[in-house]
C-alpha cells in the first residue's frame, strides 16, 4: 500500500501534545475548576497512543514488513531508554533526596519495567507494535470486527473499572499495583488499539461515516465529559488520571470530533504541522524543561503562571528537538522529527563535505 497523508492526524496529534504539556504546567488542583481542567487534559495520553495504531494500521493493515521492530527500536526504543535513564537520575539525585547507587538501580528497574517515568507511554506503544504483529496475523482476518470491538471494549472497561472502583487490599504491593502498575499491561488500552486499527485500515470510509454522524459525536463530547466530571467530583472515581474507564468514552468522542473538525479545514496551519512533527520529542523532554523552570523561578499557582509555564515548556521542548535533530545522532536520543504533509522529513542535520545527508 502506498503512503497516504492522514492530514487530520496533524491536528489531532498537536492537540494531544498540547494537552499533555498544559496538563503538566497546571499545578493547581485546589478547586473543582482546576481539577476538572486537568482531568479533561488527561485525554492527551490515550489519544497519542491511539494515533500510533491509526498510522500503523493504515500503513500495514495485513502484515508487517521485515525490519519492522528494528526500525522502531532505533528511533523510539533508544530514546525511551535514554529518557528512562535521565528521569531515573533526576529522581535519584535531585528529587528523591537519597543519592545512592542502590536507589538509582531501583529507579531504573521501576522506570524500564514498571513505567515509573513520564516516558512510560512508549512502553505502551511498543506493546501495540507487538499486538499489531500478532493480531494482523492471527485475529483480525479470522473474526468479525463487531465481536473484536465488543470483546476488547468489555475487557478494557472491566479492567479499568476494577482498579477505579475497588479499593486495594491493605498491602504495599497491592497498593502499588492499584496506584501505578495497572496502567502498564496492554489490557488497559486494548479497546483503543482495536478502534484505532479499524479506523486506520479503513480511514477514508470511517472518516466519512464520522462526518455523517457528526451531530451525535459533537453531543457525546460534553455528555461524556460531564459524566466523567461528576464521577470525579463526587469521589466515585477520585483519581485524576487518564487510566479511568470513563476516560475511554471521553477520549474516543474527542478524537472523533477533532478528526471531523480537521477534515473540514481547507489546509493545516504550518505551526500545527511543526508541533505535530516534534510531538514525540516534546512529550519526552517537556517534564525536564518544566523542572528546570521550577528550579530557577518561583511562580504563583494561578492560570496565568500555568500559561507562562506552558509556553516556555512548549517552545523550549521544540527548540531542543530541532537542535538535537541537526546532529546525526540526535534522532536516536530524542526521536526523529516526523513527516510533514508531503510525507517527507525535514533534512536539517549538520553535514560537512565528507558527510552525505541522511534521508
Automatic annotation (TrEMBL):
<feature type="transmembrane region" description="Helical">
    <location>
        <begin position="77"/>
        <end position="97"/>
    </location>
</feature>
<keyword id="KW-0808">Transferase</keyword>
<comment type="similarity">
    <text>Belongs to the acyltransferase 3 family.</text>
</comment>
<feature type="domain" description="Acyltransferase 3">
    <location>
        <begin position="11"/>
        <end position="323"/>
    </location>
</feature>
<feature type="transmembrane region" description="Helical">
    <location>
        <begin position="117"/>
        <end position="140"/>
    </location>
</feature>
<feature type="transmembrane region" description="Helical">
    <location>
        <begin position="216"/>
        <end position="241"/>
    </location>
</feature>
<feature type="transmembrane region" description="Helical">
    <location>
        <begin position="280"/>
        <end position="298"/>
    </location>
</feature>
<feature type="transmembrane region" description="Helical">
    <location>
        <begin position="247"/>
        <end position="268"/>
    </location>
</feature>
<feature type="transmembrane region" description="Helical">
    <location>
        <begin position="9"/>
        <end position="26"/>
    </location>
</feature>
<keyword id="KW-1003">Cell membrane</keyword>
<protein>
    <submittedName>
        <fullName>Acyltransferase family protein</fullName>
    </submittedName>
</protein>
<feature type="transmembrane region" description="Helical">
    <location>
        <begin position="304"/>
        <end position="324"/>
    </location>
</feature>
<feature type="transmembrane region" description="Helical">
    <location>
        <begin position="32"/>
        <end position="56"/>
    </location>
</feature>
<keyword id="KW-0812">Transmembrane</keyword>
<dbReference type="InterPro" id="IPR002656">
    <property type="entry name" value="Acyl_transf_3_dom"/>
</dbReference>
<keyword id="KW-1133">Transmembrane helix</keyword>
<feature type="transmembrane region" description="Helical">
    <location>
        <begin position="186"/>
        <end position="204"/>
    </location>
</feature>
<feature type="transmembrane region" description="Helical">
    <location>
        <begin position="147"/>
        <end position="166"/>
    </location>
</feature>
<dbReference type="Pfam" id="PF01757">
    <property type="entry name" value="Acyl_transf_3"/>
</dbReference>
<dbReference type="GO" id="GO:0016746">
    <property type="term" value="F:acyltransferase activity"/>
</dbReference>
<keyword id="KW-0012">Acyltransferase</keyword>
<keyword id="KW-0472">Membrane</keyword>
Amino acid at each position: 500500500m502506498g503512503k497516504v497523508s492522514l492530514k487530520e492526524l496533524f491536528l489531532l496529534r498537536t492537540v494531544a501534545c498540547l494537552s499533555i504539556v498544559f496538563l503538566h504546567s497546571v499545578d493547581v488542583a485546589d478547586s473543582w475548576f482546576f481539577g476538572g481542567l486537568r482531568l479533561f487534559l488527561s485525554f492527551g495520553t490515550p489519544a497519542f497512543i491511539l494515533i500510533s495504531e491509526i498510522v500503523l494500521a493504515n500503513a500495514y493493515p495485513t502484515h508487517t514488513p521485515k525490519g519492522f521492530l528494528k526500525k522502531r527500536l532505533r528511533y523510539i526504543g533508544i530514546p525511551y531508554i535514554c529518557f528512562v535513564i535521565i528521569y531515573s537520575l533526576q529522581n535519584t539525585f535531585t528529587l528523591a533526596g537519597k543519592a545512592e547507587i542502590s536507589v538509582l538501580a531501583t529507579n531504573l528497574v521501576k522506570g524500564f519495567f514498571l513505567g515509573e517515568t513520564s516516558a512510560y507511554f512508549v512502553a505502551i506503544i511498543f506493546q501495540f507494535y507487538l499486538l499489531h504483529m500478532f493480531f494482523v496475523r492471527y485475529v483480525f482476518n479470522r473474526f468479525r470486527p463487531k465481536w473484536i470491538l465488543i470483546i476488547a471494549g468489555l475487557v478494557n472497561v472491566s479492567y479499568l473499572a476494577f482498579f477505579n472502583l475497588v479499593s486495594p487490599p491493605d498491602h504495599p504491593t497491592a497498593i502499588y499495583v492499584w496506584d501505578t502498575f495497572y496502567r502498564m499491561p496492554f489490557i488497559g488500552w486494548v479497546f483503543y488499539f482495536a478502534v484505532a486499527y479499524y479506523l486506520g485500515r479503513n480511514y477514508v470510509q470511517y472518516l466519512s461515516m464520522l462526518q455523517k454522524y457528526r451531530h451525535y459525536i459533537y453531543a457525546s463530547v460534553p455528555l461524556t465529559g460531564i459524566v466523567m466530571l461528576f464521577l470525579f467530583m463526587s469521589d466515585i472515581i477520585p483519581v485524576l488520571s487518564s487510566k479511568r474507564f470513563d476516560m475511554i468514552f471521553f477520549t474516543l468522542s474527542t478524537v472523533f470530533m477533532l478528526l471531523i473538525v480537521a477534515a473540514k479545514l481547507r489546509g493545516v496551519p504550518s505551526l500545527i504541522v511543526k508541533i505535530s512533527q516534534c510531538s514525540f520529542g516534546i512529550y519526552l523532554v517537556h517534564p525536564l524543561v518544566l523542572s528546570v523552570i521550577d528550579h530557577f523561578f518561583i511562580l504563583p499557582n494561578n492560570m496565568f503562571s500555568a500559561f507562562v509555564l506552558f509556553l516556555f515548556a512548549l517552545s523550549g521542548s521544540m527548540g531542543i528537538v530541532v537542535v538535537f535533530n541537526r546532529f546525526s545522532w540526535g534522532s536516536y536520543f530524542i526521536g526523529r522529527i516526523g513527516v510533514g504533509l508531503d510525507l517527507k522529513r525535514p533534512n536539517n542535520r549538520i553535514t560537512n563535505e565528507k558527510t552525505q545527508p541522511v534521508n
